[in-house]
Design brief:
The chain is built from eleven helices and two strands; from the N terminus they run ααααββααααααα. With 342 residues, it is mainly α. It has one domain (5-323). It has a two-stranded antiparallel sheet with strand order 1-2. Strand 1 (105-106) and strand 2 form a beta hairpin. Helix 1 crosses helix 2, helix 5 crosses helix 10 and helix 5 packs across helix 11 (294-319).
């Protein structure tokens, strides 16, 4: 089959923008030329796995549950093996890193629970889930179809491996790669377990049940509030417990609602849009590392917030007239009563 280049290129760019640039934490903040140049590494590092995970989920019928579990596996590999950030209590001389890592650091295994939850959850929501939801909504005719030809899939996989190798080599050269053999092995086993779970859960038929669902705007608002709550909760032991409870409650709520017949693509988009806009708003409170002026920082924050908001609004328009109203009688996903939702 031929590669669907437009959605693939869109996801290759949007994934790193949501994963890295939206937060505005790096010394590249407010430097457009540097941000564009960094896509040479970030698109293979984030965009390629986003495309490949989406391809696997759609090609093998894993649905959104399987896709998100594969995204969690990617998050474990990225934070536990590639850049090894979740094992560190002092990373890249980021001044607030110890405040995030030390309160929940488990010395026997060398792991910060808060960092593990934040990084893996962040990759699921921002690196993979939300970019896929936005791009699929913008390309409704190709939403359920595979996008990649075999050659393109191999090339993207090789690009991801190459970018990961570059990051790993740099982490060793700068002394940031501190994971032990046991920690690396543990990360690999957890990632494999998540992949297996993604395949098993994703292939399990989902029985759609009757029942009302909130309007997409209500879902988007709830997603925004939940995301703000997550990033605003302090990284203490109690705060980390609250984050885990919040995440669990959100998963249960979405799981239950997505089994109802009136849940559709606008609701999927609403979850993504709320999370992206919330991250863009909270980014105004972050402190970039390096030499970044206030004008550069806030200019960057405004530009990225406007970008994700505009993309969400465009996607909402593409999602159909029932974004703010009720679902039409004819399902946009067909008459099959057993299908996968987000």
């Amino acid at each position: 089959m031929r590669t669907a280049w437009l959605p693939v290129l869109g996801l290759l760019v949007l994934a790193p923008v949501c994963a890295e640039y939206l937060w505005g934490y790096d010394d590249s903040t407010g430097h457009p030329a540097t941000l564009v140049g960094n896509l040479v590494v970030f698109s293979p590092l984030y965009g390629a796995p986003a495309v490949l995970i989406r391809e696997a989920a759609r090609r093998y019928g894993l649905g959104w549950p399987g896709l998100l579990l594969l995204a969690a596996a990617f998050g474990v590999v990225e934070a536990g093996i590639v850049d090894q950030s979740m094992w560190s209590t002092d990373y890249r001389d980021i001044p607030y890193w110890q405040d995030m890592s030390v309160p929940t650091y488990l010395a026997p295994i060398g792991l910060s629970i808060y960092l593990a939850v934040s990084f893996v959850g962040g990759h699921v929501i921002l690196s993979i889930g939300s970019p896929v939801a936005v791009v699929e909504t913008l390309t409704p005719r190709r939403r359920h179809e595979p996008w990649l030809g075999p050659v393109t899939a191999v090339v993207l996989a090789l690009l991801y491996l190459g970018a990961s190798a570059l990051v790993l080599v740099d982490a060793h050269q700068t002394g940031e790669a501190t994971a032990t053999t046991g920690q690396l092995l543990g990360s690999a086993l957890v990632a494999i377990g998540l992949v297996v779970a993604g395949v098993r859960v994703g292939r399990r038929p989902t029985l759609i049940v009757p029942g009302p669902v909130p309007r997409p705007l209500v879902v988007a608002t709830a997603s925004f509030v939940a995301m703000i709550g997550w990033v605003a909760i302090p990284p203490s032991r109690f705060g980390t417990a609250l984050v885990i409870l919040l995440a669990g409650a959100c998963v249960v709520a979405v799981w239950r609602l997505s089994h109802r017949g009136d849940w559709g693509q606008p609701h999927v988009l609403a979850l993504a849009a709320g999370a992206l806009v919330a991250a863009g708003c909270f980014a105004f409170l972050t402190t970039p590392i390096g030499e970044v002026s206030r004008a550069e920082k806030y200019g960057h924050n405004v530009a990225l917030l406007l970008l994700v908001t505009a993309l969400a609004a465009w996607a909402a328009r593409r999602a159909g007239p029932w974004w703010t109203g009720t679902r039409p009688h004819a399902s946009v996903e067909g008459p099959n009563p057993r299908r996968h939702h987000a």
